[in-house]
Structure formats: structure tokens, C-alpha cells
Amino acid sequence: MDILPPVATLCLGIIFGYIGQRARMCFIGGMRDYFLVRDTYLIKGLFTFLIFAFIGFFMFHFISKAISTFPWFLNGGAVFLKKWKTMGINVDPSPILPVPGDPITWSPKVWAHIIVAMIGGFGLGFFSTLSGGCPFRQHVMAAEGSKSAIVYLIGLYLGAVVFHKFIAPIIKAILG
Amino acid sequence: MRMTAAMVGAISGFLAAAVQAFFHVIPPPAYGICIACHVRDLVNWIAAHIYPIYGISHGKLIIPGGPVSYNFPLLTVVGVLIGAYIAARINREFRWKVMRVAWQRPFAEFFWGMMVMISALTVGGCPIRTALKTAYLDITAAIGLVMIGVGVFFGCQVLKKLVYGR
Questions:
Q1: Distance linking the first and last C-alpha atoms of chain A
Q2: CA distance A54 to A60
Q3: What is the pTM (predicted TM-score) of this model?
Q4: Strand (E) or helix (H) holding B33
Q5: Residue A158 CA to chain centroid, in angstroms?
Q6: Which of A129, A149, A155, B28 allows an S-S link to B114, with CB 3.0 to 4.6 Å?
Q7: Confidence (pLDDT) at B166
Q8: From the first residue on, what is the mean pLDDT of each consecutive set of 10 residues in chain A (176 residues)?
């Protein structure tokens, strides 16, 4: 079943790209419009996304084993304990530990995770506002033929390589 | 039917939960829709297969990214490009253009793109995945989402200065 997730996300991406282009959806753009001109058309998308994703997770965690860790602040600790046993770390997991994915994923230091989330979140909001949209919106604009967005995508793709080769080791060395 | 942003948010949020539940886009959890992470998976998978030296650390092949993308990367990004291109073609909105304002010319956008990617991977996902993680009831992601709002607020101040020149 290795091929199932790529195919499912490809189909989801096509649907999401299509309806996202029709509605001009952008979370960063929604916050920006609200702060600049108090326009709430786009930011409603953020709130309905939160509400319906929560409803979806809540409904499906009864019937699907893939969402067995659903309330992460209750069940996430078990995931960390299992991994830490193989790494030889003996700490009680805190409920604030995040979903795996940031550069210092398995570190037991809670404050380090919070600092990383704060710095990254601030930079993400700031630079996305200046560039004119969140990464999703830039992909849609590139497909609409905006040359600025195409150059943005090249920078985005190179940024992934730069991050994993140069930035992530620095963050791990300082905080991990 | 005319799509509004609220409807798109509802549909995509529900589908992001469904795709994790029924199509096993896991681990890591809350990975159904994310632009930055899936770009990272795709780019690193391609780079590690073109240049095997790229992915090797401690003597074995380790591709940076989500474990679900280890054998074959998730293709959300390709899907978004295809879907948006179809939508733009059907509704006759496709045309080549360049943004007029100085800080959105292509050379500046290259820099913004790189900085956005570095910040997004630092927080652990683009705004969409941060919202998805918040819906998964992850407290650190909620802090990240609030800080995205703070960053947008400061960005708006800079935008006002750039537009009005004061």
C-alpha cells in the first residue's frame, strides 16, 4: 500500500487547487486583509478550516486507527515515550510537546519547541505578508501565469534544500 | 456554483482529516494538507535519488522529511498546480503577468520564497498545516498560529510604510 498516500494526496491536491483558485483562498491573505482593511471574506476560510478539520478528526477517530492519537495533548506523550525508549531518554512527556515535524522533533525540552514555533511562526507571517500570499496561494498564482510567483516557487524549492543542509543542523546544535 | 473562501476552508479541512483516516497519510499525524512539508518531501526525495550522497548520513540513506514519503513522495503540490491550472484555463483567467510593486518583482520574490520556506520548516509546516495541527489539538502549533498572526501584523506595518512612504 505504498502507492495509496501519493495518489490520495494527488487527487486531494487537484480538488484543493481547483476550488482554491475559484475562491482565491489564502490564510495569510485573510489575516492581512483583516489587519489592513477589516475585510473578513478570506479569514472566514481559516475559521471554517479549523472547525471542520476538528469535526473531521473527532468523527473519524472513533472508526479509524490512523487517528488513534487524536487529542494530541492527551495521547501524544505515548508516541514520545515509545520513541524515547529507543533513544535512551528517561523523561515524563509534557502535554505541550508538538506533533513531529519541526527540526528538533524528538527533543524532550518543551521550551525549545516553543521558541522554535515562535521564531518560525513570526518569520512565516512576516515574509509571507511581504511576498503577497501563503505558499498555497503562490502555487495557485504560478498556475495562473504570474512570473513573480514562479520565481517565488524556485526560491521555495531551493529553500528546502538550504534548510536541511545548513539551517537545521544549526538549530539542532543550539537547542537540541 | 460560486465558491467562497469559507466553503473552501470547510471542504479542505474535512478532506484533510478524511485523507489521514482512510488513506493512511501517517506518520507524522496531521499531514493531510501541507504545502511546505510536501514540497520538502518531494525536493528531498528527488535530490536524494539524483545525488545519493545528499541523503546519506551515518552511512545509510536517510531522506529528510515525513516517514510517509520515504518510498514515494506525496504529490499534493503537483495536484495543486494541475488543479489551479485547469481552473484558470476553464475560466479564462490564465495570462502571463508580473507583479507591479517593487517588493514583488521576481528577484525579490526569490528571496521571500527562500525565507518563507526556512521559517515554515522551522515552525513545522506552512500556515495550512499549522492550522491542521491546531485542529489536532496541539498546543505548540496553536502558539505558532498566534505568532503567524503577530508576524502578519508587523508585515502589515511594513507594507503601510512601503505604500505610503512614512
A1: 34
A2: 10
A3: 0.91
A4: none
A5: 18
A6: A155
A7: 64
A8: 82 91 89 90 90 90 81 84 84 82 81 90 92 89 90 91 87 84
Surface-to-core class of residue A59, CB atoms within 10 Å of its CB (0-12 exposed, 13-18 middle, 19+ buried): middle
Q: Which residues contact B21 (CB under 8 A, 6 or more apart)?
A: A56, A60, A61, A63, A64, A66, A67
Instruction: Reduce the DSSP state of residue B124 to 3 states and report it.
Output: coil
Rounded CA gap, A98 and B140, in Å? 5
Q: What is the DSSP letter of A94?
A: P
| C-alpha cell, A79 | 508516541
pLDDT at residue A71, as a whole number: 84
- What is the DSSP-derived secondary structure letter of residue B56? E
Alpha-carbon Rg for chain A, nearest whole angstrom, is 19
Q: Cis before residue B28, ω within 30 degrees of 0?
A: yes
Helix (H, G, I), strand (E, B) or coil at B93: coil
Query: How far apart, in whole angstroms, are the C-alpha atoms of residue A168 and residue A150?
Result: 25
Closest CA to A11 of B83, B36, B89: B83
Residue of A64, A73, A147 with shortest CB distance to B138: A73
Nearest to B151 among A4, A21, A125 (CB): A125
Low-confidence stretches of chain B (pLDDT < 70) are 55, 57, 59, 166
CB atoms within 10 A of CB A130: 20
What is the distance of C-alpha A133 from the center of its chain? 15
8 Å CB contact between B39 and A136 = no
Confidence (pLDDT) at B19: 87
What distance lies between CA B145 and its chain's CA centroid? 14
Residues in chain A closer than 8 A to B40 (CB atoms): 160, 163-164
How close A78 comes to chain B (CA, Å)? 14
The type of residue at A175 is L
Report the alpha-carbon distance of residue B66 to residue B74 in Å, rounded.
9
Would you call the peptide bond into A6 cis, given omega within 30 degrees of 0 as the criterion?
Answer: no
* Inter-chain touch A132–B99, beta carbons under 8 Å: yes
